[in-house]
Write a structure and sequence with these properties.
It is built from 19 helices and 32 strands. It is α+β, with helices and mostly antiparallel strands and 793 residues long.
């Protein structure tokens, strides 16, 4: 196969060779005695024109000068070469290289003249000089192999010539570099296969990178760029092939160093984890730069705290070695003050130690013959020490490799410092968030509760999920769950403020829709432009769900501000998503919030959750809700087990958002815990209410509360009869405390005040406040309810 079909044919015969040059014969008088066809081709004169004529007529010079020149040359007794200007038949002058060779034949003197175009001769001589240079002076190594792929010849630039070419003549190619290998993967990696391919197909293979140790330099590893071409003779018969090789060790290593830096920029420090960053440094540097990388860090840096200052270099460090966090082993290490490690830490400069150090496992066996110690520096602080060890590679660390190691250590130091700062901030945000979440839920009788909070395990930091359970009057309970958009300290702080606001509004006994409306107004104020607390961005798009459950009636009312509705599993086992139309997220305004009322039987399980429980990168929220609903079909299981089942059903892998799950199982207070009495608006009914209260308390075994309870009931009923126009309802509830509630149709609430000595009234609520542990007023659709709680002895 001819790779270059249009390339000119290379002729290695000299232009003055008799087979190619113009030839003529001159007699003793300088006349042309012989004129060959080659001379006619060169000058255009036919034999008839020049035979018998003086040869001086062919010279382009003055007549006298022609004759003298010709006589001087023809009378010489030795061959002589010169450059002459010859006259061509067409009139132009040809500058030619001419050789005169005197000869004598049977006593007759004659001269043989050989001439060639001077320019053609100079081009041939340049080609010959080029070949001579390739063989003796070029940096390109040339090796010729026969058809059996055995060495025939090599120029002086090959490592074979440097090692003594004679001992390699006739040996197969595989014996030249027995331990080398091709690092190019575009062709077969075996040299015999490459040569066989070139011999068989004639297709040259170029640019192969071969790495090995040369016979003339067996200590240092080299890299060559090799090309293979087939050799054929003038008849097209196969002679073998030749290999041209160029030592590109320095260029190849420079490219490797550059690619290593590019890979390091992409990998080192991308995890924001101290241990993983150390593993990334080892993974990038091994095996190209070193056979093993050790990273020694103070425990404070690993834990995310500031590196210690003022301590002796090399004391109280933890050594991490391994290429992945799973393989990493940690062991304490310290360096004596005279050690090269301590010197590197003290001077903040790399140090090379060629003495064999002991193995890291403490066995005392030398495992490396060259070590490079590089301090991990960032922001003028020493974070630790990176050790680059070589055991299988016999080369010492050169200046370029030291520079590369320092660059890698700087990148690792920045990544470790960023990871340390992130760990510190993440831990602070997590502590803040968990301190703002309820540490324990208050005791109450309305529901059984279980909850789970899992922070996101991604680099975005903690989120703004929250939940709460708020005891309300009348044995009721408020349940809330919410989510603040964003992550980090601001999200956690915003979450804590909103949770406190929800708790405050809930204690005002507002219904869910009214509570969300007021909360929406507060959030909208915080998100107005110009707020200087730094929380405005997080308060946009806050979602919240608030519910109130009454264990006496089994009535549950909830409203949502952009939050997913709860999932209800009733006592019969059926599971359904609540028919709740969420309003807009908090802070947006514009649309009202609506209450949804549902009657729950005792033993029903209600799941309140944030989107981190049911949504992730791989599945949509509908699939997550179906998954959670499937878990709730096991609603008879303990709530703690249901929580674990629900969170373990999430897809594995890192989670981008916090997950908050609040499960409640409803209870009902039976008729033996509740007593209702309807009273007409007649002052005479106060005594009846007091008598009925004492009788009910005696039946409940609470006779010790008869006096304070009768007094509280008397005052509350008296106020309602005095200021209301319709019937008065008295309700007694035996729970963890005794609850006394009086409801009427008036919408004005009494106020506690301190009565003066001459006032006839104003002492009733003061007595109620003194007798009870809590009291208050809540409004209903038909009026109000005044309630008081009395502690049970």
């Amino acid at each position: 196969m001819d790779r270059f079909p249009n390339a000119p044919h290379v002729d290695f015969h000299s232009p003055l060779d008799l087979s190619k040059a113009a030839a003529a014969v001159l007699d003793a008088e300088g006349r042309v005695a012989g004129w060959g066809p080659s001379a006619q081709r060169l000058l255009g004169h036919s034999p008839e024109d020049v035979l018998g004529q003086p040869a001086a007529r062919l010279l382009a010079a003055a007549p006298g000068q022609r004759l003298s020149t010709l006589c001087r040359i023809c009378t010489a007794h030795q061959p002589r070469s010169t450059v002459l200007d010859l006259c061509c038949r067409d009139g132009h002058t040809l500058r030619a290289a001419v050789t005169f060779s005197p000869l004598a034949h049977r006593g007759a003197a004659a001269t043989v003249v050989v001439a060639a175009d001077l320019e053609t001769l100079r081009a041939w001589e340049a080609q010959l000089a080029m070949l001579q240079g390739l063989a003796t002076e070029s940096d390109v190594g040339l090796t010729i192999f026969d058809t059996d792929m055995r060495v025939v010849w090599a120029n002086v630039s090959t490592d074979l010539e440097l090692a003594g070419i004679a001992q390699y003549i006739g040996r197969p190619a595989a014996d030249l570099f027995p331990e080398g290998e091709f690092v190019s993967r575009h062709h077969p990696p075996d040299e015999d296969q490459i040569m066989e391919h070139v011999l068989t197909t004639g297709e040259p293979i170029t640019g192969m990178h071969y790495r090995g140790r040369a016979p003339a330099d067996p200590v240092r590893e080299h890299v060559w760029s090799c090309s293979y071409h087939r050799l054929v003779d003038a008849r097209g018969e196969l002679l073998g092939l030749f290999e041209e090789s160029l030592d590109i060790t320095e260029r190849y290593r420079a490219q490797e160093r550059l690619s290593l830096l590019v890979r390091a920029g992409k990998r080192i420090g991308a995890s924001l984890d101290v241990r993983r960053t150390a593993a990334e440094l080892a993974d990038v540097a091994v095996p190209q730069l070193a056979d093993e990388v050790l990273v020694d860090l103070p425990p404070a840096v690993i834990e995310g705290r500031q590196p210690p200052t003022g301590s002796a270099p090399g004391h109280s460090l933890l050594r991490m070695h391994g290429r992945t966090p799973e393989e990493f082993r940690t062991s304490p290490v310290s360096y004596p003050p005279w050690s090269p490690q301590a010197q590197s830490l003290a001077t903040s400069r790399p140090v090379i130690d060629a003495s064999p150090p002991e193995s890291p496992d403490g066995s005392g066996a030398p495992t490396a013959h060259s070590c490079l110690f590089v301090p991990l520096l960032t922001r003028n602080a020493v974070l630790g020490l990176a050790t680059f060890r070589r055991s299988s590679n016999p080369d010492r660390f050169g200046p370029e490799e030291q520079t590369l190691a320092v660059e890698l250590a700087e990148r690792a130091a920045v990544g470790i410092d960023n990871a340390r700062r992130y760990t510190s901030q993440h831990a602070a945000a997590l502590v803040l968030q968990r301190s703002l979440l309820p540490q324990h839920l208050p005791e109450q009788s309305a529901v059984d509760v279980a909850y789970r909070y899992l922070p996101a395990d991604s680099r975005v930091g903690v989120g703004g999920d929250w939940f709460d359970l708020i005891p309300l009057s009348g044995a009721r309970v408020g349940l809330t769950v919410g989510d603040v958009v964003g992550h980090g300290m601001h999200a956690a702080a915003t979450m804590g403020r909103l949770r406190a606001t929800v708790r405050t509004l809930a204690l005002l006994d507002l219904d869910p829709a009214e509570l969300l409306t007021r909360l929406d107004g507060l959030v909208a104020q915080d998100s107005e432009p110009g707020t200087e607390d730094g929380l405005g961005d997080e308060t946009l798009g806050v979602t919240c769900l608030y519910a109130i459950y009454d264990p006496v009636s089994g009535r549950c009312v909830w409203a949502s501000a952009g939050h997913p509705p709860p999932i209800v599993a009733d006592a019969s086992g059926s599971v359904a998503l609540s028919a709740l139309a969420p309003g807009p997220p908090l802070g947006l305004g514009g649309l009202p919030y609506e209450n949804v009322e549902l009657s729950l039987s005792g033993g029903s399980v209600v799941a309140f959750f944030t989107d981190g429980v049911v949504e992730d990168r791989s599945t949509d929220i509908d699939s997550g809700i179906d998954r959670l609903s499937q878990v709730l079909t096991w609603q008879r299981c303990p709530l703690e087990e249901l929580c674990d089942r629900a969170l373990s059903a999430r897809p594995p892998g890192p989670q981008a958002d916090d997950a908050t799950l609040l499960l409640v199982r409803t209870r009902r207070l039976g008729t033996d815990h509740v007593a209702d009495l309807e009273l007409p608006p007649d002052p005479a009914m106060v005594a009846h209410a007091r008598t009925d209260t004492e009788r009910r308390l005696a039946a409940w075994g609470l006779s010790d509360l008869s006096f304070p309870a009768a007094l509280v009931v008397s005052e509350l009923v008296t106020n309602s009869i005095r200021y209301a126009t319709g019937p008065v309802m008295l309700r007694l509830i035996r729970d963890r405390c005794l609850l006394c509630e009086v409801s009427d149709n008036a919408h004005t609430a009494p106020h506690l005040r301190r009565a003066r000595r001459d006032d006839e009234g104003g002492r009733g609520l003061f007595l109620v406040a003194q007798m009870s542990q809590r009291w208050g007023t809540r409004y209903t659709a038909s009026g109000k309810t005044i309630w008081a709680e009395l502690a049970i002895p």
